[in-house]
Amino acid sequence: MALTFFDVKAANPKDKSYRLSDGDGLYLQIQPNGSKLWRFRYRHAGIEKMLGIGPYPAVSIADARLKRDEARKLLETGVDPIVQRKHERIAAETSARTTFGLVAAEYLSNMQANGAAASTLSKNKWLLEDLASPLANRPIAEVTAAEILDLLKRVERTGRRESARRLRSTMSAVFKLAVVTLRAPSDPTYALQGALLKPNSKPRAAITDEAKFGELLRAIDVFDGWPTIRLALQFAALTFARPGEIRGARRGEFLFEKSVWRIPGERTKTRRPHDVPLSRQALDVLKEVWPQSDDGDLVFPSITSLKKPLSENAFNASLRRMGFGQDEMTAHGFRATASTILNEREFNPDVIEAALAHQHQNPVRRVYNRAGYWKERVALMQTWADMLDEFRQLPAPARQQHEELNNEHSGARRTKRTRRAP
Questions:
Q1: pTM (2 decimals)?
Q2: Can the peptide bond before residue 55 be classed as cis, meaning omega within 30 degrees of 0?
Q3: Does 49 qualify as catalytic in the annotation?
């Protein structure tokens, strides 16, 4: 006979535990200390077993019957309810231990093992460990699109739109790793495509006027800051290599007898080795900077230590000190300057792209760019170095002449006012 609320309420403890049956194997066990526990007795594979359902009143009569019926359904399919509960407990514990932070750490470890550049690792680490830190301890299978969107919007509201978009993309890679390793059912970032504002993209500033560029070259030549920075900027103008490649250049990469700078793949953006032909002027820069780092491996070491490269901001800070604003010229701008001027002068675009180490989308053209244009690139780099010498001799740009004329007029007016003063 099924139990009623009054039956359960009136069941007082005795010296020994006793049971009140509810039917179909479900009963309430009353303990001497007064606690009342639901139990389900059943047989599986010929063995009698007992499944604990929970205490009363935390588990009501209706809930106890529902759990009993669920257990009976499992038995009908040949599944032992106790074994099923154990599996569910293990799965829950595993899920709780498999947090977003742990999978993100595994993703970063995989990136490093696959040879990702140090700068790429650093950026991804910042995104996943700093910006995504609110999700670090969340079970990755439970993270929802809504909480990810809230996180991304918080980053976006600080004005870092590009960072928010990169964070979504990087988090997506972490979720995909969790999916293929059976630790998450899906990638919740997929639903957020198009949910973020477009970044306020702004191309890197670069001087593309030949006379104005000549003014910059003259300013670099007489720069009175740290000599290594001056020489590094001259080298950047001559080779138009990426700033990070120049700052991290090591002595063993230079083959002076062949006039070649051989940048290893682990230091390039495309992760492919890149050879740079060295003009006579570039070799002269190297000969001047070489003795300044005799006790170290870096060609352009920092001011503070021969074992550390120049900082990322060293180039730009020096350009600002020379009077070239951030909207006028940047360290990366030397590449844009060379590309623009050389294309305007109608040099072979494929040779220019190969010299810039841009990776062609067509794999056949990509191989040819690297192997087939070497002689043309050698000639191009020497021609470019000679052009820089010509730019240095060009008259000052009209803007500078206008400013100098204004300064002269201002000085004359001040002199005139001074003479009239009593």
A1: 0.55
A2: no
A3: no
